[in-house]
Batch of 2 targets.
Target 1
Amino acid sequence: MDIKKILQIIAGSNLQNKIVLLFILIATIPILVLGGLAVYLIDFSHRFDVSNLELQLIDQKTEEIKKFFADTAGVLELQVGFSQKTPIGLNEQRFILDGIIALNRAFEEVSFIDVGGLIANDIPTKPGLETIKLFRGGDNDSELFDISNLEKYQSPLSGKTYFSEVYQTLNGPMITISSPVKNRNGDIIQILSAEVNMNQISRSIINSTLGFSGGLTLLDGAGSVIASKNKFVSSGANLANILRIRQMLDGKTFDGLGNEDRYQSVVDGAAVVGAGKKIPSLGWVLFAEWPLDDADSVIRDVRNQVFAFTLISILAVLAIAPFFALRIIRPIRQLELGSSKIEEGDFEYKVDIKSKDELEQLGNAFNKMGNGLKRLQELKNEFVFIAAHELRTPVTAIKGYMSMLFEGDAGPVPEAIKKFLEPVGQANDRLVGLINDILEIARSEAGRIKIEVFSVDIRASIKGVIQNIAPLAVERKIAINYAIGENEPIGLLLVLADTMRLHEVITNFISNAIKYDQEGGWIKIYHETDADFVTTHIEDNGIGIPKSEQGKIFEKFFRSDASKVAQIQGTGLGLFITKELVEKMGGKVWFQSPASARATAGKEEGRGTRFSFKLPRPKNKI
Amino acid sequence: MFKYLIATLCLIFAGLGGIYYFVGVPRIESTNFPALSAIHLYNNPDVLVDNIHISAFYFVSENKIGQVSGNWHNTMEVGLPKLAAFHELQFQKRSKISYAIYPEPVIGEKDNLLYDTENTGRGNPRALIAISEELERRVFKPDGDLYRKDFAEIGGQGYPVIFIMYEGVGATGGIIHESARETASEIAADLGLAESVIFVVDVSSADGFFILNRETLEGKHGPNGETIVAHEFYHTLGVEDKYSLDTGRAESADLMGLGRFKPLENTFLSKDTLNALGL
C-alpha cells in the first residue's frame, strides 16, 4: 500500500474532510483567539501591576528622601532674633553646633563660617573663615581654614541653601549642605555648613525590594550612583551617558508600561522592567529595575499554562474532529449502501441509524421505501407469473396445432402455405421459450423452484448436452472440444447438483457459446478441481463482451450491444437464470476474459469469452 | 480537500507559534553602554594605574635606633588597608592597591640630619629622595645588604610605589619620571613646572614614592594621620595639592584640599580629580 493510499484512508471521503475541516475551523479559531486574548490580557494586567509596584516604591522612597532633607537642610536654615549684622557669639555657635550634632546622626561635621560681619569695635570678620567646626566623635579643637573659594561658602551668599554633589566615603554617601544664617532683617550674618551622611537613604535604597531581586537605584543630578540595590554597580559610577538615564535627568518619567521599559539593565545588562522619575526638588533620579526572570516568573507560569491548555484543546479538537465527522458521515454511508442494495434488488436490506435526529428519521423513511419497493416487486412478480402462465396455454396450443399442421394431420400443406407457416412456428417457439424463461424467473423469485441436489457426474451431463446440441455446432462449423485435463481425476467427476438444472445450466452456456461464436470458430470445455469444488470453464473465440458491459451480463434482460449489432436473437434472461440456478445449487458463476484477451488489455471485444461456474463436490464420493 | 486540511493545520500551528513567541512576550530594548576609560596618572593617559603596588618601609636613621617603635608594623597594617579600601571605593573598583610591608625596620646608614639636610620644608622632600635612593641600593638591587628577592620582585605586579614611614620629619610624595635631562631646570622646562618642585632622584624600582612621619600616621601630631597618608599617596599619581601652600586656603573640599584634615572615612576625591585620573 503506497503512501498516497494511506493518506486517502486517513483523509477519508470528501464530505468527511469538509466536515473535519469545518469542525477544526469552528472549534480552533475561538480557542486560538481566546488563548491569545487570555495571554494578552494577563500580560497587560501584569504589566500594570508591575508598574504600580515600581511607581509606589519610587514614590515611597522619594517621600523618605524629601523627609530626610527636611530634617537636615531644614535644621540648617537658621534665623537669629537680633537685627545687627554681627555673627553669633562663639559660645552660642558651639551650643548650636552641639545641638545639631546631637539632633540627627546624619550630621558628621558642622561649622560656622564668617561672611565679613562686624564684631566688637566694628572690626569686620574675615569672609570665608571657619569660626568653629565640630566632628561627630571628634575633639572640639578642630583646625579652622579659609574656605572662601569653596562653593559651600560662596553659594549660600546668594541667600539659598547649597547642596553639593553627593560624594562617596568609607562611611557612605555624603553631601555638603550649607545655609545662610540670617538676622531678623534677613541679612546674611554667617554661613552654617554641614557634612551630612546619607547612610539612612542609602540603606533604604539598598534594602528596597521588588520581588526577590528587584530594587531601586538613586542617582544624583550628575547621574552618579548614590546607592543601589544592585550589587554589580559601584557607588559613584556615572551613568549619565546612558540614554535612558539622560532622559530621566532631563525630566522624563518612565512608568514601566511602555515597550521601552523592558530593556537591558543600565546597571548590569540583565533583562529588566524598569520605571523611574526625577525628584525635581533635588534634581536627582530614582529608578526601579526588576529583572524579568523574577518580575515575570508568575506570569510566565500562568502564560505557559494558558498556552498548554490552548495547545491541548487544539490537539483534542484535531483528535476528535475525524470521529465527529465520521459520526455525521456514517448514516449517510449507510443510506448509500442501502441504495446500492436496493439497486441490486435487495429490498430486504434495512439501514440502522440511531442518531435520534432527522438522519434517523431519514433512515426510517428509507426503510419504508424499501418495504414499498419490495411490495411492488412482489406484485410485479405475481403479475408476470400469472401473465406468463396464462400466455403459455394458448401458445402451447398454437405450437401443438402448428406441429399437427406440419405433420399433415389436417392434410397435405402446400409449399406456398408452409413457407408462410414456418416463420409463425419459429416465432411461436421463441415466444414459448420467452414465456418459459419468465415463468422460471418468476418461480425462482417467488421461491417456487425446487432444487434437489445429488451426486451427479458432470462429465456425463456435459457430454449429453454436447451430443444434443452438436447439430447446431455442425451447422455453424464450430468445433467443440471437451477433454480431460492432465490434472483431472480419471472416471466420474461428481458434483452436488440437480440433474435437470445442471443440464439446463450447461445447455445455456454451450448454446450461448455457439450463438455468439463466429462461424468456423471453436469452443473449449475443461475443468479445474480442488478439494471442495469442481470448476467448469466454457471458453470460445467469439465476438466477446466489451469491458464496460461485463459487470452487467448476469443482470435480468441485459443484452450486449455487440449481440444487438450482430442481430443475434435472445431474451437477456438466460445468464440470469443460469446464475440463479447455480447459486441455488450452492455454486458460483463468473465471467472472465480469456488469457488471449487479457494479453491485449482493454480489448476484450472480439477476443472471445470464458464463462465459468463451480459446484461443490460431494463429501462422500459414491 | 486534503491540501486545505493541511493548510488549515499549518495555519493553526502558525497561530499557536505566534501566540507563544509574540503575545505577551516582552521585547527587550538594548542599552548602549559607553566604553569605560582606563584609570591612569593624573592628566596622563599614557601610564595606566589600574593596579598599584606599594612597597612599604619603616625607615629609621642610624642615630634614632633607640626610638624604633614597637608598634610600627601594626600602624602600617591599619593604615594601608584603609588606603586600599578608600582607593577602591573612589575608583569604583577599577583601580586597586596591593601592598607589601618590608618585614624589618630599615636602619639607615646615616644620621637623620644627613637625610633631612638643613631644609625640611614642604614635607621634607630631600629626606624622601635620600632614603629612596638608599632603599633602591640596599633593598631592590640584588647586591644590596637588605635585598630580598620576593620583596623586590613583587613590585612588578602593578604601578610601583615606595612608601616610607619615617622616624623623622616628612609628609610629601611625587612621581618619578624618567628623563634624559640632567638638571632640574631642564626637566622643569620640559614639564612646564616650577623648578622648585623638580628633584633629581636615582630610583628605578618605583614610579612614585611618598614619605610620612610615623607619629603623624599614628595620630600623635593631630587626628587623621591615615588621611595624610592617602593625601601623600595621591601625589605619587601626580595629583596636585588643592590648597594654597602659602596661605593654607582651601581650593577644594576633597582629600587634596580641605578634606585632608578630615577622618579618612569621611573624605573623598573630587569628581574633577577622578576625571583627571581617567574615571
Note: The CA atoms of residues 253 and 259 of chain B lie 5 Å apart.
Target 2
Amino acid sequence: MKDLIAYIAKALVDKPEEVVVTEVEGEQTSVIELKVAKEDLGKVIGKQGRTARAMRTVLSAASTKINKRSVLEILE
Amino acid sequence: MQTYEFQAKTDEEAIEAACRQLNVSQDEIDIEIIEPGSTGIFGLVGGRKAKIKVTLKAPEAPEEPPEDEEGVQVAKEALENILALIPVEGTTVTADRSDGTINLRIDGDKSGLLIGRKGRTLDALQFIINKIVNKSIEKRARVLVDSEDYRQRRQDFLIQMALKMGDKAKKIQKPVTTNLLNPHDRRIVHLALRDDEELDTKGRGEGIMKKVVIIPKKQNASPGRL
C-alpha cells in the first residue's frame, strides 16, 4: 500500500526525493501518511482535491483486494 | 544542425540573401540577428552591416512521432507500475496513440477490481495517468484507460438509459432527471438525445458531477423556465 502511494506521489511531484510515506497499520484499517515538499502540496491534492481523491480511490481498490481498509492522510 | 552567417546592408536584405543562397523559404530557417544594420549618422559615419545567423530547421515531420511515442511509453509504464503495486496479477496493458489521445487497454482483470463502482477506479487511474503523462511531455495528450471494454459497455448503457428517460419525459410531459454524472457520461446523454426534436437536455448542479435534465419541448408554448 505504502509503495503504491509513494510511486504515484513521486510521479506527480517536482521533488520526488522529498516524498515520504509512512504506514501505520491497525487491525483492520491502516493509515497512510504522505508528506511532500511544500511546493508540491498542491500537486498531490489537485484542483478541488481531485488528485487526492483519485489516489484515495486507487488506494481503496488496492485495499479491498486484501480485505482491508486504508486511509490516506496528506500531511502539511 | 548547420548554421550560416550572412551580412548585408539591412536585416531584410541579409535574410533575403540567405534564403536565396540556401535555396529555402523563410519558414524553413531560424534567423538570429547578431548585429542589426545601422546606417550611421546621416548615412555617413559609423554605418554598419547587418549580420545574421541562419540555422536550417530540421524538417518537422520526423521530429513529432518520437515525442508522441514517448508519451505512450510513459503512460504504459506508469499504468503497469501502478497495477503491479496494487497488486493485480495476470494483466497486460496495450497502448496506442491516435492524434492527441493515448489509449490504454487493460486485459485480464476478471474481477472488475480496476473498474470499481460506476467506473470510479478506472476514472481515478485515468486521471492519475493523465497527470503523470502531461507532466513529462510538452504537447498535451489525453489519456484514456479502459478495462474489459468497460467504456463501450458504459456508453451503450447510458444511451439506452437516455432514450428510455426521453420516452418517459415525452409520455408524462415533465422533465426527467438523471443521477449525478461525470462530464464524459453527461456528454453521452446529451449526444444521445441531440437529434430528438421533442426533447431538450440541460445540465444541472455544481462541480464536476452534475445531473442531466431531459425536458420535453412543449408544443406551441412559451420557452421553458429551465
Note: The longest strand of chain A covers residues 29-35.
